[in-house]
């Protein structure tokens, strides 16, 4: 007797769908990695959204499904590559976060220095109150 999934579909019919889902996750990860390498953070977020959607759909399909040995091997290989991409993406995101932190700190220091400099400047009187210096027009 053939095994069936919780939704009644035969397991042998769902296994290729599940493996295709993991292949799609790998494609999304590769796109995310390419975007991260190009410092294209907006594009990375768009790909991440597609990745999350695929994870959610895959979770519903895979729930209660037991892959055969070949399917488990294929899934493990896909997951290993996904995790490799994920690691590099995370490293690049951390580097970007540190870079943004440095930029924010530099901007804050510039803002504080600007305020301090402005506070030491003499107040300028409006033109109507200014008195000309002797010998100056």
Low-confidence stretches are: none
Shape field: rod-shaped
Oligomer: single chain
- Radius of gyration from the CA trace? 30 Å
Major sheet attributes = none
Number of E-state strands? 0
How would you describe what is shown here?
The chain is mainly α. It contains three helices and no strands. Helix 1 (11-37) runs antiparallel to helix 2 and helix 1 (11-37) runs parallel beside helix 3 (69-120). The model has no long low-confidence stretch (mean pLDDT 84).
How would you concisely characterize the structure shown here?
It contains 3 helices and no strands.
What layout of secondary structure does this protein have?
Elements: H1 11-37, H2 41-62, H3 69-120
Keywords:
mainly alpha, 137 residues, 0% strand
């Amino acid at each position: 007797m053939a095994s069936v999934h919780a939704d009644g579909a035969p397991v042998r019919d769902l296994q290729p769908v599940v493996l295709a889902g993991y292949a799609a996750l790998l494609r999304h990860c590769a796109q995310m990695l390419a975007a991260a390498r190009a410092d294209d953070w907006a594009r990375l977020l768009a790909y991440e959204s597609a990745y999350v959607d695929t994870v959610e759909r895959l979770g519903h399909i895979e729930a209660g499904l037991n892959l055969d040995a070949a399917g488990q091997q294929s899934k493990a290989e896909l997951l290993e590559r996904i995790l490799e991409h994920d690691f590099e993406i995370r490293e690049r995101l951390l580097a970007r976060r540190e870079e943004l932190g440095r930029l924010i700190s530099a901007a804050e220091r510039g803002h504080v220095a600007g305020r301090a400099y402005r506070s030491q400047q003499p107040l300028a009187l409006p033109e109507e109150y200014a008195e000309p210096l002797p010998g100056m027009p």
